[in-house]
Every structure is written in C-alpha cells, then in structure tokens.
TrEMBL record:
Residues 436-566 form the Centromere/kinetochore protein zw10 C-terminal domain. Interacts with NBAS and KNTC1/ROD; the interactions are mutually exclusive and indicative for its association in two different vesicle tethering complexes. Component of the RZZ complex composed of KNTC1/ROD, ZW10 and ZWILCH. Component of the NRZ complex composed of NBAS, ZW10 and RINT1/TIP20L; NRZ associates with SNAREs STX18, USE1L, BNIP1/SEC20L and SEC22B (the assembly has been described as syntaxin 18 complex). Interacts directly with RINT1/TIP20L bound to BNIP1/SEC20L. Interacts with C19orf25 and ZWINT. Interacts with ZFYVE1. Its main location: nucleus. It is a peripheral membrane protein. It comes from the Eukaryota. Keywords: Acetylation, Cell cycle, Cell division, Centromere, Chromosome, Coiled coil, Cytoplasm, Cytoskeleton, Endoplasmic reticulum, ER-Golgi transport, Kinetochore, Membrane, Mitosis, Phosphoprotein, Protein transport, Transport. It is found in: Chromosome, Centromere, Kinetochore; Cytoplasm, Cytoskeleton, Spindle; Endoplasmic reticulum membrane. Belongs to the ZW10 family. This is Centromere/kinetochore protein zw10 homolog. Residues 588-742 form the ZW10 C-terminal helical domain. The keyword Ribonucleoprotein does not apply. Residues 142-379 form the Centromere/kinetochore protein zw10 middle domain. The gene is Zw10.
Length: 743
C-alpha cells in the first residue's frame, strides 16, 4: 500500500525524485529473493515427502497383490480338496457322472495352480499323484459297471469268427438297474456319461464296435444261414444266433439288411439311446448320442463289408433281371433311413446307397469281368480237345434281334443257327455259298466256345443300355486281344514241341479271323448308333490273327525241315555206296525221313484243311528230295555199283513218299491226293530225271537233253548234267562226244 501510495503521490505531484526511484528498486529486489526462498523450500521439503508417500503406496500395492495371489492359490487348493471330497462321496453313492465331474474340477484346479509362475509348490506334485490315483480308481469302478452292463460270451477260440464260433457267441445287455442303484438314474447313461467326462468313452466304444463287427455284423453278412434272435429275461436281454439251411448261396440284400436292423434296434433300445454331454472342447454342439459315436466308428467298415459281400453278389448277370433290382435299391434306402432315425447314420446318401443306385454300371462291369474270366479260362484250357468244323458248321445262338429294334428288345425265344456258309448281307445280296466258307478242319472246342461267348455277349449288348452296350462291345474286342496275347505265351512250349497242336492253333486263328470278318456286321444296326464313327467292327483284327496262325505253323515247319536235314546229314553224303557201311547209313537216313513224314501225315490228318495239309506235306517231302538231289549231283565219282544202290534209295523215296499223304481218315479218299503229289512237290520231276540218269547210258542221256529242249534240260543245268556224266562214266572219246552235246 505504501509503495502504491507513494507512487501515486509522486505521479500526482509529477515531481520525479531520483531518491524515490532507488528505494523502489531495492524493494522489488527484496520481494524477488523472498520468492526464491519459498521456491527452494517447496523443492526441498514437500517434494521429498511426496516421493516417500508414492514409495509407500507402491509397496502396499505389491503387498496386496502378493496376498491376493496367495489367497487365490489357497482358494484353488481348497477347491481341489473339496472336489476330491465330493468325488469320494459321489463315488460311494454310485453317482458316477457327478463323481467324474468332480474329478474334472479337481483337474482344472490343479492345472491353474501349475500355471502360476514363481510358485513351484512342493505340494503340487503330491496333488497330481493323488488325482491320477483317483482317476484310475474311478475308471476301474466304471469298467466293472460296464462289464455288468455289456457281457460278451465268446467261444474260447479267440481267432476265428467262423460260422461255428459265431453260433456259440452271445451278447447280454443289462436292462434294469438292481434295487439299490435306482437312485442313480439309469446306470447305462450314468456310466457312459462318466466315461465321456473322463475322455475314455472313445476307447471303450471302439473295442465294443470291433467286437460287434467281428462276432455279429460281419458274420451276418457272410453266412446266409445265420439268424439272430433275442431272448428277454427279467433284467437282461440276450442276443443269440441259430443256423438255418439257406435257400441260396448268397442272402439277398433285403435279408441281410433285416438282420442288421434287428441288431441295431436291440442295441439302440437297451444301450445306445443315451444322449451325452461331450466335454466342450471336443464337440461344438455339446449333446451327442452314443449311437452317433458308434456309427462314426463302425459305419465305414460295415458299409464296405455290405458292398463287397452282399451287394456285389446281388448285381444281376443278365439284363432281363436288371428291372427287379429296383427292389434292392429301395431296401437299401429303407435300411439307411432306419439307421438315420436311430442316429447311427448322419448325412445323406452314403457309399452303400451310391453303390446300389449305380447298378447299371456295376452290371456292365460285372458282365464284362465275367466275360473276360470265362474267356481266359477257355484260353488256358487244353488245345488238343477238338471239334470238327465243316463249311456248313454254325455257331449255335439265340436268334438275332431284328435290325433297328433298339433298346426295348426282348430276346426272342426261338433258337436259330448262324450259318458260316450263308451270310445274309443287307438282306438283298445273297453271296455265293462259299464266299465266307471255312474249309473243313479241326479246331479246339474251347475256341468254338470262345466264339459262342463273343456272339452271346454281343447279343446281350444289343439289348442293354447304351453305356453297358459300349462296355460289352469293347469287352468282346478285349477277348480277342487277350487271345492274341495269352495263347501264344501260355501254350508256347507245347506249340513248339507238338506239331499237332501247332496245326490246331493255326486252325483256331484262321477260324477266329474268319468270324471276325462278319462279327460286327450282324449287330451293326444296334452298335453303330452308339459307337462313335460306327466302329462296330472287328475287321481290323483279322490280319493279326491270320499272321498269328501262320507264324506258329511256319515255325513248326522250320522245326520239321531242320529234323529232315539233320537225318539226311547222317547219310555220308551218299558217296561210296559200294561200301556196305555207307550204304546202311544212307538207307537208314532215308527210312527215318519217311518215318518222320508218315508220323506227321498221321498227326495232321483230319486236323489241317486238306489244301493246307497237302502244301505242308509237299513242302517237307520236297525238302528231303532237294537235299538228296543236291548231294548226289555233287559227287565226283559214282561207280556202277554206287549208281545201282543210289537208284534203289531214290526208288524207295519215289514209291513211299506219296504214301505219307493221308489228309483224310478214310483211306480210299486219299488216293486222289497221293496221285497229285507232283503238284505239291516242286522238285518231284527233278528227282525222277536224276533216277533216269543213274540208270541211263550216254546216248540216253544225250537224248533226254535233246539240245536243251528235252525233259532233262527242264530240270538240270548243262553244268550239272556234265558233272554227273563225268562222275558216272570213264573218260573216253564217246564221253567227250556226249559232253560236247550238252550245252
């Protein structure tokens, strides 16, 4: 106030005084230092007190946290203890679900305790041990209860689930709890729920499911004679089996489904219709029935078994029965519906139903498989059981459907024969009877059957659905490709060793090739519509089969030629026949060759077509004659005695050679072919000319030559004739004159 007044006074008086200004400065200075002191005081004392307070607060806070933690641990320990106590009480009262839940509570308290860092309490280990012991104890009790509820009586032989052992198997299911347990509610539910809470249900059910499959479900599918039946007693229901004479080898799917439904109904009623609370982490939706759990475990295996051992056998083998199959599909649908209602099955169409509904394709597959199996069996059967084929032989067949009759064909009842000799093309052009005729010969009866199989399968194809028709058509093509691959390999050794089999195989191939020419044709109306580019033909296979037959037979011919040459090689080159030993060797060689040819003539008789027979025998006889001519023409010296003996050897060949031609079993009919030998034996005339030379004098030889125009000139070259003259005749002027004329 003073200062202000003073300032006011001075201002009022407008009398600035130097003295007063100085006073003012010093007063302001004083005030400023007072503020500094106060500031220092605050900084030093109050701030210090604040820091202390904060520190105390933090310490108290930590103290509180520690106490809370200890308290929560004590609380968890107390919870654990209470849970174990309540578990014991519940267990004594057989309240299994409650007991199991208390154990789980104890388990979660222990988990919580173990998760606290920095509190490794010694006691935790002891608690863990205690929990394990109690859990095992509980599982033991539950196991005992389960064994009372579900009793398997199985025959001692553990391994087999044969019909015998299954008939002696029983399954007992407890139905009513005994008096003192009624308080605990239905024991089944309680025991199973407790298993579920402890997470052990899965294991128990899995074992039960496996026994169920092995001793009940699978045998019911496999043994048609097995019948399940139930017997109810006061507190137990028993599932037993008896065996009855089955009507068929395989039970129908309907029968099998009924038996299995019976089993599931019993199980559902007495054991499995129990809703369970699942531990939350396993199942989102919480409640699930036991039936559903069991279904999940066994359905796949059960459905596979039903498909393999029941549905597969029920697939029809001919198209006429396909329509009746609707029943099977219906009963499969019914079966699944029943199982769904009992909650064994969830979701829609299972593999089982898909399989049944897909019957058309299974029918085709089964049919094709049967065809191929039948064909393979025919191909691996003996070749030498033969049948005679004549130009008017036929393949016995049901009559062919009218062209264009399409899908709604019913097979005609009559049985008509499909003739080889008259193939009716387009119904207008009648071909000559022999255009497609096969020469008479023998073929394997298995090949005739194979051909019938091919015709029947194509006939079936024409009456089938498109898809099936295509599959069957290709399986017929497969039959022939299989023959092409299998037969030559499978019968390889015999075809090489046995000339008769080689001949039959040759005929078989020609017979097949012959039929393949027209095979597609008879069915073309039906097949061309659905096979792309009208490829309903087998003609492309024809050359391969002809080649197959030819190659096999030619290989056999090479073997026979080799043997002939081998035998003639022991004839000492036909030289020095005046030596007894040499003559014997040559004679023996010729006898052996004739014997070989005679044997072949017999094994091929009535087997090869006559023209093939004559060509083959002619070729082999020709091989022998050619070899003999070559050897004799190469001799440098032939004495008169040599010439006589060579002549008699040659005469044996000329007289007995034709007799090996016996294409027909009737002797008198073979004469004609024996007289025609020169037609089939290329070197026949050459051989006859050689014999003439061996007996002739010089003049006769010159006459036979007749300036290169005679019969001798037709068979031998000038050089060969000269060589023979030099060997046969001494060196004289007459010989020189004769030689001069051969040119």
């Amino acid at each position: 106030g003073e200062v202000c007044n003073m300032i006011n006074k001075k201002y009022n008086e407008f009398l600035p005084s130097m003295q007063s200004a100085e006073d003012l400065v010093s007063q302001v200075d004083g005030l400023s230092s007072n503020i500094d002191l106060l500031k220092a005081g605050i900084e030093n004392e109050v701030q210090r007190d604040l820091n202390v307070a904060v520190a105390e607060f933090t310490e108290l806070k930590q103290q509180l946290e520690r106490d809370t933690l200890v308290l929560s641990i004590l609380k968890k320990l107390q919870e654990f203890d209470t849970a174990i106590k309540e578990y014991n009480t519940a267990l004594l009262e057989k309240k299994y679900t409650a007991a199991a839940q208390q154990l789980e509570k104890a388990r979660s308290s222990l988990k919580m305790l173990e998760s606290r860092k920095g509190f490794e309490l010694k006691i935790l280990k002891a608690l863990g041990t205690e929990l394990t012991v109690q859990t095992q104890n509980m599982l033991y009790h539950l196991g005992e209860e389960w064994q009372k509820l579900v009793v398997w009586k199985l025959p001692p032989s553990k391994e087999s689930s044969s019909l015998e052992s299954v008939i002696h198997s029983e399954l007992h299911l407890r139905t009513v709890p005994s008096k003192e347990e009624e308080i605990a509610g239905p024991p089944v539910a309680s025991v199973l729920q407790a298993f579920a809470v402890l997470g052990e249900l899965h294991t128990k059910l899995k074992i039960f499911g496996q026994l169920l499959l092995k001793y009940i479900l699978k045998p019911l599918i496999s043994y048609p004679s097995l019948q399940p039946f139930t017997e109810e007693q006061s507190d137990v229901v028993i599932l037993r089996f008896k065996s009855e004479e089955p009507s068929l080898d395989h039970s129908s799917p309907m029968e099998v489904f009924d038996k299995i439904k019976l089993i599931f109904e019993v199980l559902h009623k007495y054991l499995l219709n129990v809703p369970l609370e699942q531990p939350v982490e396993d199942k989102k939706e919480g409640r699930v029935t036991l039936a559903e759990l069991l279904g999940d475990m066994i359905w796949e295996e059960l459905s596979d078994c039903l498909i393999q051992n029941c549905l597969v056998n029920s697939i029809p083998t001919n198209s006429s029965k396909l329509e009746q199959y609707i029943e099977v599909i219906k009963s499969t649908e019914e079966f699944e519906k029943v199982l769904k209602n009992m909650q064994f099955l969830k979701g829609d169409t299972t593999d089982l139903l898909k399989y049944a509904r897909n019957v058309n394709s299974h029918f085709a597959n089964k049919k094709c498989q049967d065809v191929i199996v039948a064909a393979r069996n025919l191909m691996t059967s003996e070749i030498h059981n033969t049948v005679k084929i004549t130009p008017d032989s036929c393949v016995a067949l049901p009559s062919l459907p009218n062209s264009g009759a399409g899908d709604h064909l019913k097979m005609q009842k009559t049985s008509k024969l499909l003739h080889n000799d008259m193939v009716n093309l387009e119904n207008e052009t009648k071909l000559s009877q022999y255009t497609f005729s096969l020469p008479a010969c023998r073929i394997s009866s298995s090949v005739e059957k194979l051909m019938e199989l091919a015709y029947q399968t194509l006939l079936e194809a024409t009456a089938s659905t498109d898809q099936c028709c295509i599959q069957l058509f290709y399986s017929v093509r497969n039959i022939f490709q299989l023959f092409y691959d299998v037969v030559p390999t499978y019968h390889k050794e015999n075809l090489q060793k046995l000339p008769q089999l080689a001949a039959i195989h040759h005929n078989n191939c020609m017979y097949i090739a012959h039929h393949l020419l027209t095979l597609g044709h008879q069915f073309r109306y039906r097949l061309t519509n659905i096979l792309c580019d009208g490829a309903a033909t087998f003609v492309d296979l024809v050359p391969g089969f002809r080649r197959l037959g030819m190659e096999c037979f030619l290989a056999q011919m090479r073997v026979q030629k080799g043997e002939i040459l081998e035998r003639l090689s022991s004839a000492r080159n036909f030289s020095n026949m005046d030596d007894e030993e040499n003559y014997c060797a040559a004679n023996k060689a010729i006898r052996q060759v004739l014997h070989q040819l005679k044997r072949l003539g017999k094994v091929w008789q009535d087997v090869l077509p006559v023209n093939v027979y004559c060509k083959a025998m002619g070729t082999l006889l020709n091989t022998a004659l050619t070899e003999i001519v070559t050897r004799i023409a190469a001799l440098e010296d032939i004495s008169a005695e040599d010439a006589d003996r060579l002549y008699s050897l040659c005469r044996t060949m000329v007289e007995e050679g034709p007799q090996v031609f016996t294409p027909l079993p009737e002797e008198d009919k073979n004469k004609k072919y024996q007289e025609e030998v020169p037609v089939y034996v290329q070197k026949w005339m050459t051989f006859k000319e050689l014999m003439i030379i061996l007996q002739a004098n010089l003049q006769e030889i010159v006459d036979q030559w007749a300036d290169g125009k005679g019969p001798l000139a037709a068979e031998f070259s000038a050089a060969e004739v000269k060589s023979l003259i030099r060997a046969l005749f001494q060196n004289t002027e007459r010989r020189a004159a004769a030689l001069a004329k051969i040119k």
